[in-house]
Write a structure and sequence with these properties.
Blueprint: H1 14-21, H2 24-32, H3 35-46, H4 51-66, H5 88-95
Helix pairs in contact: 2-4, 3-4
Amino acid sequence: MKKILQGTVHKLTTEIKSALTADRTALDAWQRLTPLARNEWLCWILSQKKAETRQKHLKRLIADLKSGKKRPCCWIGCVHRDDKKISSSVRFLLKGE
């Protein structure tokens, strides 16, 4: 099997790799995503504090990939990237003002 592609900042966990390799359609869709799109999905999953929320996001990742989605819906984007500044609107959201 070919290497499963990573994100730009976040790396695949064993759990995410297992979910992707268990579903060929989802894996094929994952491999076609851009590195930034893969990173958004990874950040969206890994940023969750509760294990059960991460599990829900992981299940949704597989379903969304299979339905053709390329990025998580309603996600402000990865704030861990150091190659771009966080926009003022996202900074506002993060401050909770």
